[in-house]
Design a protein that fits this description.
This is Endothelin-converting enzyme 1. GO terms for molecular function: metal ion binding; metalloendopeptidase activity. This protein has about 675 residues and is mainly alpha-helical. The protein is about 55% helix and about 5% strand. Strand 6 and strand 7 form a beta hairpin. Helix 2 packs across helix 16. The longest helix is centred in the last third of the chain and has 24 residues.
Length: about 675
């Protein structure tokens, strides 16, 4: 009730009706660029993790669990600010020495003494930094049971938009970036030459930004081109960067694995045009600037783990980009860091404390109900032919679900094995960051030549989110999102179906959005739609593109093509979840659930849509709004509510919105 603004006509602006009160009561914290129900729940989870990590009883309980104890050591090292201050910049200087030296901070540096291959391999393999191009082991989209080496564009620290767009906001970002480049170098001892040297690096980054491909709105469209154009699939045939012997480079990268890189090793190049242009830029750049550019990346990604005088540079820089002020409490940074590094170990603490068996049972029931609704609705799609409909049904039936947490975290030995390769020292916070990067990159590299593990989770249990994997054809709902306001065991089902139920429907629909539909039930990139169904689908989705492109947010037009996949999922998810709720009432002989105190005038069909809308209550700083519109694949929360509900006949009926009102337009868009 407190989130609502009941003075607003729900048929005119349902978002303001549902969230108008929330916006006045939830000011954006100084250290945040945006604020939302998702972020509030994430904060709540972080508060709980802080309490658990610092509890003597909890530490005693898990003292025989090596993975959890390693996570505690990582957290303690992060919290030891006194030691971090004492060490100052020395850890980064020691890291730089591992590369020999750096032209910016060492006047005795010479080009003849600098080894490009050694530096590049160490940066890419040990630090997981990609200054020229990204290289990783990924799923082979033609056969999702196999892995393949993937090359993709990388390079600039700032986004392509931030480097190239000619607006006041983007100019402000560039100014702040150049300032942190110079300031950081000065603190590391660069002296009077810092600004000139960093300006050379900046100009190189600018050239790289100009040749980067904008992969949105559809990465899959790009990948499809790779597949359709029959681009080289082996190392021997792939056009390498002119400055690098790829076979030698990969030999160094994979030297700690069992895989022997050969000329017939399969590779996929996602950004061929970028690779060619990047090679040209490299060839025309003096070796000294190349070295400075690469070492600048090292300094940028590691200096934030130093003492406060260095962290303050990042807070000042962040203020220009995001509009935030100040720094988060240290415990919050450390909790976030340990969750990102030892997510499954920390997830064990979270699950043991919060996750109830009935939450998983309820989620399984909802998934079953909503999947069945999706399959039943396939029969009513007059734009899809029978051949495509049959295969779509098979794919929907084959979707697997993961709920709460992966089973292995309850096995102490398996959990220990998960983190056996990462070293942690309670007295070396900076070097723990080095070990973390090296560990996760090596884990990825080790996957080459091995079958894809389709049971692996890409999110940790405390995460407030969910996802659909096209190559695994599975949906994942971590324990972190199976809580109020998305789900609560003693809430009416109207609220739960409007909350987590909609999220379930959303993720299922992702299997059939503009990207997901291109993968078959086994997770392979394959054309299984007929041409007639593809053409009909495009006409349906063009309606959504036009609708969402007509919206403005903070004075900027939304890109309906860039957000298409998420908009398809929102529209399908709310429809399927509402229909599943109706089926639940019918199956359980429930005509109407008990009215809620203070909301007696609202039916539970109305509460379903109110619950849905309120999970998207949110607020943005102008800087965050610009970034969301430029780079985000999700529509802002307000437009997710208005866009999907204005297409819903069920919403219009529940709220008795007259035809022609803003929330019940005569012409609507519908795909699924």
């Amino acid at each position: 009730m407190k989130s609502m603004n009941t003075t607003i006509d729900p048929c005119d602006d349902f978002y303001q009706y549902a969230c108008g009160g929330w916006e006045t009561k939830n000011l954006i914290p100084d250290t945040r660029s945006s604020w939302s129900q998702f972020r509030i729940l994430s904060n709540r989870n972080e508060e709980l993790l802080k309490k658990l990590i610092n509890s003597k009883d909890i530490r005693d309980k898990y003292k025989d669990n090596p993975a959890v104890m390693k996570a505690f050591d990582y957290y303690d090292a992060c919290m030891d600010e006194k030691l971090i201050e004492k060490l100052g910049q020395q850890p980064l200087q020691d890291l730089i020495k591992m590369f020999g030296s750096w032209n910016v901070t060492n006047k005795n540096w010479t080009e003849a003494d600098w080894d490009f291959m050694k530096t590049f391999v160490m940066i890419q393999r040990d630090l997981s930094i990609a200054p020229w191009f990204n290289m990783f082991v990924g799923t082979d989209l033609k056969d999702s049971t196999k892995t393949v080496i993937v090359f993709d564009q990388s390079g600039t620290i700032l986004s392509r938009e931030a480097m190239l767009f000619n607006t006041t906001y983007h100019a402000k970002i560039r100014t702040a970036y150049r300032r942190i480049m110079t300031s950081l170098m000065e603190k590391l001892g660069a002296g009077n030459e810092a600004e000139a040297r960093m300006e050379e690096v900046y100009q190189l980054e600018l050239e790289l930004a100009k040749v980067k491909q904008r992969i949105q709105p559809s990465l899959i469209h790009l990948l499809s081109k790779v597949r359709q154009n029959n681009q080289p699939r082996t190392l021997k045939l792939a056009p390498p960067p002119s400055f690098l012997n790829l076979t030698d480079f990969l030999g160094h990268i994979f030297n700690l694995t069992d895989y022997n890189v050969k000329q017939d090793t399969e590779v996929v190049v996602y950004a061929m045009e970028y690779m060619v242009n990047m090679s040209r830029i490299f060839a025309n750049t003096p070796k000294r600037i190349v070295a400075n550019y690469m070492m600048w990346h090292v300094a940028y990604f590691f200096a934030s783990s130093l003492s406060k005088e260095f962290r303050d540079l990042y807070y000042e820089y962040r203020e220009a980009i995001t509009g935030t002020r100040g720094e988060d409490p240290r415990w919050q940074d450390c909790t976030s860091g340990v969750s990102g590094t030892f997510g499954m170990a920390i997830g064990l603490l979270f699950v043991d404390q919060t996750f109830k068996k009935e939450s998983k049972t309820s989620a399984e029931r909802m998934i079953k109900d909503i999947r069945n609704v999706f399959i039943d609705n396939l029969q009513n799609l007059n734009w899809m032919d029978e051949k495509t409909r049959k295969v779509a049904k098979e794919k929907a039936e084959a979707i697997r679900e993961n709920i709460g947490y992966p089973d292995f975290i309850k096995n102490k030995t398996a959990l220990e094995l998960e983190y056996s390769g990462v070293r942690v020292d309670k007295t070396k916070y900076f070097w723990n960051q080095y070990e973390r990067r090296k560990f996760y990159n090596q884990k990825n590299i080790d996957e080459l030549g091995k079958p894809v593990d389709k049971t692996k989770w890409s999110m940790n249990p405390p995460t407030v989110n969910a996802y659909y994997s096209s190559t695994d054809n599975k949906i994942v709902f971590p324990a972190g999102i199976l809580q109020d306001p998305f789900y609560e065991g003693d809430h009416p089902n109207s609220l739960n179906y409007g909350g987590i139920g909609m999220v379930v429907g959303h993720e299922i629909t992702h299997g059939f959005d503009d990207n997901g539909r291109k993968f078959n039930k086994d997770g392979n990139l394959l054309t299984w739609w007929t041409n007639n169904s593809i053409e009909a689908f495009k006409k349906k989705t063009d309606c959504l593109v036009k609708q969402y492109s007509s919206y403005e947010f903070h004075g900027k037009k939304l890109n309906g093509l860039q957000t298409l996949g998420e908009n398809i999922a929102d529209n399908g998810g709310i429809k399927q979840s509402f229909q599943a709720y109706q089926k639940w009432k019918k199956d359980n002989n429930v005509e109407e659930e008990k009215r809620l105190p203070g909301l007696e005038k609202l039916s539970h069909d109305q509460l379903f849509f109110l619950s849905f809308a309120q999970i998207w209550c949110s607020a943005y700083r102008p800087e965050a709004a610009i970034r969301a519109i430029e780079n985000g694949v999700h529509s802002p929360g307000k437009l997710r509510v208005i866009g999907s509900l204005s297409n819903s006949n069920e919403f219009a009926e529940a709220w008795k919105c007259p035809v022609g009102s803003r929330m019940n337009p005569k012409d609507k868009c519908a795909v699924w």
